[in-house]
Design goal:
Elements lengths: L2 H8 L7 H14 L5 H8 L4 E7 L4 H16 L3 E7 L4 H12 L5 E4 L18 E3 L10 E4 L1 H14 L6 E4 L5 H16 L8 E2 L4 H12 L6 E4 L2 H13 L9 E3 L16 E4 L1 H16 L8 E4 L1 E4 L11
Keywords: DNA-binding, Transcription, Transcription regulation
Protein name: Lactose operon repressor
GO molecular function, one term: transcription cis-regulatory region binding
Amino acid sequence: MSAQTVSRVSTGADNVRADTRQRVLDAMEQLGYSPNHAARALRNGSFRTIGVIAHQLARTGESRTVEAVVEATRAAGYTITLVDVEHPEASDVSEAVQRLSHQSIDGLVIIRAEPASPTSLVLPDRLPVAVSDSRFAGHHPTVAADQESGTRQAVQHLLDAGHRTVHHVAGPETSIPATMRVEAWEELLAASGRPSVAPLHGDWSARSGYELGRRLAADPDVTAVFAANDEMAVGVMRALHEEGLRVPEDVSVVGFDDLPLSEYLWPPLTTVRQDFPRIGRELVDMVLRQLRGEVLTDLRVVVGVELVERGSVAPPRPR
């Protein structure tokens, strides 16, 4: 076989006869041959690899977004190189970018860069980048879930059930999505003429939801709780149960994210579903389009969310 024929088979080209392809594959298997991807990258200028930077992969949003990016990258015929930064400061993220750029990547996906800013984050020139953070709009193409709409749907659902107001178990004050949900919650209550109290900030964990839930259970005015994610909602529900309060008969609870386990809780949790698979596809697509020469600096995609009504909301009853 000519070197050109072997090259065509190893790269998956279609213009090779079936019997010839099989002979080449049989020879490769017998010899234990595998293509040299590094040499191919030097020749073609493409490593078929996308770098991914994430923070705290144990958190639901990050892990599910990374999972979606991996699936979309695989479908496009690429692999990923993942770096999980311990602290999301600009210097740490910039250092992670430099490490990835030395590992031969074609583009970069940043899941979240808080508290870095577009001006503080140092990225290599001409590197295709997509960011899952709306603050980077106008600097890099971005993808973000519609946090405001999801919050309004959740809070309005509780108000429509007849609750006088809605208490909020929020995420960390340093989190951009958590801040956006707090602002949307406050705005909707104000626009509806409903009283509001200061949000209780957790750290996204079920334990923090449980601890804050015990405080809420001690307040007889609490009849409805909007938790900024499903894990904290689970903690709130356990705390209410231990204090002798029933969900939803005594206190209604709504979460955010729609974890797979949410529909199997008792009662099943009403929550806001984020479309993580689409977020991953959009991020990867933005990088690939830039690799094809498109300029997407101002592109911002807002992915819609959906309220999933289950059994954790009911009209209020006097406690």
